[in-house]
Amino acid sequence: MPQRLGVAFLLLFMGLEAGWAHVSSLQIEGIFLGELPEGHFPLSWQPPTRIHWVGTSLREVWFRAKVKVSPSTFLYIPSIDHEITVYTNSQRMYSFGSPRDFLSSFVPLLIPLGSQESDEKDKEQEILWRIRSETGFLGLPRLPLLVGNTSEIFQALVRRDVVLWVMVAMILFSALASLAVFYWYSRQFVGWLFAFAVTIAVYLASRSLAKWWIFGLYPRFYGSLELWSLFFLPFFVWQMVRGMLSLSKRWHSVLAYGLFGFGLVAVLGSLVSFHFLVTLLYPFELFLLGFLPLLLGILAYHGRKNPWAREVFAGFFILGITAVLDILREQGLILSEHIFTAYGWVAVFVNFLVVETRRMRSMAKENQKMVKEIQSLNIEILSTQKEVILRLSEIAEARSRETGNHVRRVSEYAALIGRKCGLSLEEIDLLRLAVPMHDLGKLAVPDDILHKPSKLTEEEFAFMKKHTIFGYEMLCKSSRPIFKMASIIALEHHERIDGQGYPYGKKGEEIHLYARITTVADVFDSLSSNRCYKKAWPWDEVVAYLRKNSGTQFEHRLVEYLLSEEEEVHRIQHTYFDDFQGDTNGTVSS
Ligand SMILES: [Fe+2]
Ligand SMILES: [Fe+2]
Q1: Could you tell me the CATH superfamily of domain 400-575?
Q2: Which stretch of 58-62, 327-331, 444-448 has the lowest confidence by average pLDDT?
Q3: pTM
């Protein structure tokens, strides 16, 4: 799918340019390569070849054309890096730039060819133009020179630019759209892809003639911008490939920051000295020639295991094809900045966009699955924890001849009172889990005391009272909030409001609220439910007992909270009902 999209883009824009590129351009009839003294003209002309960059040995190139001229005819020179001089019928018409300077390429040249007083209409004239450079780096017009009246030239320029500016707009638009898509899937900002998009947009804009209208006054700034896009593209590409394939070896970082450092030096250097740039440009273009095969090799290597690498490979393969096409178009000149052509970059960008979106979508799906698994695991852990606590509490209660349902009921009553006290939902949940452990300390009380059929001696009862401290010590070592709470309840659930309880005789609010609640719930259940040794007390008697001891054994308001919820209390009793047909003589549970 991404491959097909890339190819479609490539064909679309190649078609657009083929249709629009060749407007009323000046037909070159001959060229002359070589230096001539000032005032001399070439005598021998070669057939024209289309060339862009000329090697270091050459300092001067001449071009010849014949054109029919009227008084309103102008010659438009789109892109010259150095000095240009134009002659009409061996007469010097115009001269611009300097053989030592680079800036002339950023100024549009519109030269009148027809003379105003002349009556020679549509007379054919010979036009010569000479380009000179002393930098060892001869930049020739990349685009055809245009001839015509000013409105014809203007229309041709606009037509030529439209394709590029439409592409710039499309790339910026798709960059913004993709940021939104990525943010939607992954809640993250994909900075590299955005930087890549902006860089390609700048690169394409720099191919446009419109740069003169925008940056005419700031050619040096614009030149730096163009170089920035040229030098930093490989860096952004490499960062994206690294991120997408999670390449983390040391040499990957070295390559990335090496590219960045090189780009920075080149851009800053170009602001200072053109010669400096020229010395960097050739090695860089050589490097670019090697960079693409290197990238393809890395992607092919990782593609064995990584499906994303295979898909990104497709994008760069298209770039490779367009680069080869460009070289062929340059008619034999291999070193050219056109090697990383705009169409190829667009294909690469679209490819990245599609692959990265698909990658993020699949990651988002995976994440959702994981979150669900974690959630169900959490629920599993919580219910296991609850189960363990209940079983443990049941064991403790069973030793003192209580039933498993006792702890469940006490826990529900405590939750009921807690709700009336205004505890938070989390606190109530914790309370529900912690309350069953109130008599855990009974596990440390010997059977002959715990199960003694007759009344306990004073010593035995004193030991029995220690189940509160034993329980506390068993539970307090845990750092979990639930066991912290349970340890307080275990310690204080036999304290009384009037200070007559045990183990420490704490009074009123010195006793923790959780323990005060548990005391009411625990005693209420002991009275109101069947035991193997006694029958449940009738409701009225239980109420009377609680009210009588309210303010001394129990906190008054907590008793009233419980009794005011009679219906709910009966529902709990019904749900966790214990049926005993044994003997019923005995005492209220401790
Ligand atoms: Fe107890
Ligand atoms: Fe109990």
Answers
A1: Hypothetical protein af1432 (1.10.3210.10)
A2: 327-331
A3: 0.55
